[in-house]
Structures are given as structure tokens and as C-alpha cells.
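Justification of computing resources. Each target in the renewal requires a structure prediction run like the one illustrated here; the chain below, 124 residues long, is used simply to show the kind of job we budget for.
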Amino acid sequence: MRKLFLGLIMGVLFMSGCSAGASMEDEKVSIYEMKSFAEIRKNSLITFTDTKVENTFAEAFHSAERVPGIVDMADPDYRVEFGDEAYFLWMGEEHGTIMNTNDTHTIYTLSKSSAKMIYELLNQ
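Resulting C-alpha cells:
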């Protein structure tokens, strides 16, 4: 499952960076604050178009560790979209958890350093 997840991330990044007429500079990371799994907070969209920020998210999500078992999670803090993928994100100052919106039975934990970088980006 982890290989599938990592393959999806890398595939999305590769395809978005190499598709005709598109470059990494054309990509963006869209982040929405969430009220619940199904409801986005109004006027909460944050958009990053900087390649460094996109790479930060891609690297953090790529290196996240799969948590075994079936999950039952509280409502997410954020929804993160980049490329053709979307993830729910639970964020703290030194910890983070992601869940692919297409696989809501599996979560992944971010490394402490990745969580810290993303936390800082979200709180600029």
C-alpha cells in the first residue's frame, strides 16, 4: 500500500512537471481550512505557487510513514490539493497526519521536521 501511495505521489509530480505545456512553475498548492470532512470554511483558501513550497509538501507527503490498521479520525484541519491529488491534513506545531481523500481508511504521519516546515508555511 505504501508503494502504491508513493507511486501515486511521484506519478502526479512527474506528470504535472512533464506534461506538454506545463512546468512546475505552473503548479500550485491549494489549502482549505476544514469544518468537517465534508465542509470547507468559507474564505479559507490559501494558494502557494512557489515551486519550493510545492516541493516541501511533495517531499513531506512522500516521506510520510503509513500507520497500520483502520483509522477513525476527528475532522481534518485542512484539505491540501496539488496536481490531481487531494489530502486531508491534521496539523500541529511538531506533528502532522495526512490521508489521501481517495483512501480514507489509511493515514500517514509526517516526520517531525516536515511537520514543522508545513506548520510554519501555514502560519506565515
